[in-house]
Design goal:
Layout lengths: L1 E4 L6 H17 L5 E5 L4 E4 L16 E3 L6 E4 L3 E7 L9 H17 L6 E3 L2 E8 L4 E16 L2 E9 L19 E2 L11 H15 L8
Parallel strand pairs: 1-2, 3-4, 9-11
Antiparallel strand pairs: 2-6, 3-5, 6-10, 7-8, 8-9, 9-10
Helix pairs in contact: 2-3
Length: about 220
């Protein structure tokens, strides 16, 4: 398993190019699996289920159409992206189980900062109850995920809000969900550096995803 960490924002097309190349190499057995932690400049991406009317302000930031599942989402500074290129066939070939593992990865990462992340049926991503606002009935999204699988190798992954500018979400209806908001660790009162978040992500990942033997 290779871990890549970039602190400078990576242009979205460059990230797609790297993922495509690494996924092909993983499938061919010429490169190891990879997790890439990074940030992007402010932008919106639309997945395969994106609806045009959910792009509220198409002129605000660059908009990219992408092959991952899901609808519109935002990426930008202060948000930790985790792109994951795994050999899913060697890991059981179960896409639904893989999605739950990604959710579990986020949930265990949040737990290291004493934040309780939860799944919600019909609402993709990881959610938190806003008990900090004395509003236990309010739930905000703290992390998104989007998956693509090509020749049984995974692409894309997760996006965890550490300290992004949450007003940037106003240009879209995130994941097509209007009745709930978005939040971040900082918005929840958690001050954490990106390096601390990276350490938590790496530790949680090793708990959720077991290594595989290279049988090629």
């Amino acid at each position: 398993m290779e871990w890549r960490i970039d602190d400078a924002p990576i242009p979205y097309p460059d990230a797609l190019s790297f993922m495509d190349g690494r996924a092909a190499a993983v499938r061919d057995g010429t490169a190891p699996e990879c997790v890439w932690l990074l940030e992007h400049p402010p932008l919106y991406t639309g997945g395969t289920s994106a609806k045009p009317h959910d792009l509220v302000d198409p002129e605000r930031f660059p908009v990219f159409t992408t092959g991952r599942g899901g609808e519109y989402t935002y990426h930008g500074p202060g948000q930790r992206i985790g792109y994951v290129m795994l050999d899913l066939k060697a890991r059981g070939g179960d896409v639904r189980a893989y999605v739950r593992q990604l959710e579990e990865w986020i949930i265990r990462t949040l737990a290291r900062f004493s934040v309780t992340g939860e799944r919600r049926k019909g609402r993709p991503g990881v959610w938190v109850r806003r008990t900090d606002l004395n509003a236990p009935d309010r739930e905000d999204k703290v992390a998104a995920l989007g998956v693509r699988v090509r020749r049984w190798v995974t692409l894309h992954g997760i996006a965890l809000n550490v300290e992004p500018d949450l007003s940037h979400y106003a240009g879209i209806i995130p994941c097509g969900i209007q009745d709930h908001g978005v939040t971040s660790l900082l918005d929840l009162g958690i001050t954490a550096s990106m390096a601390e978040v990276d350490m938590a992500l790496r530790a949680a990942f090793t708990e959720v995803f077991q290594p595989i033997e290279n049988t090629r």
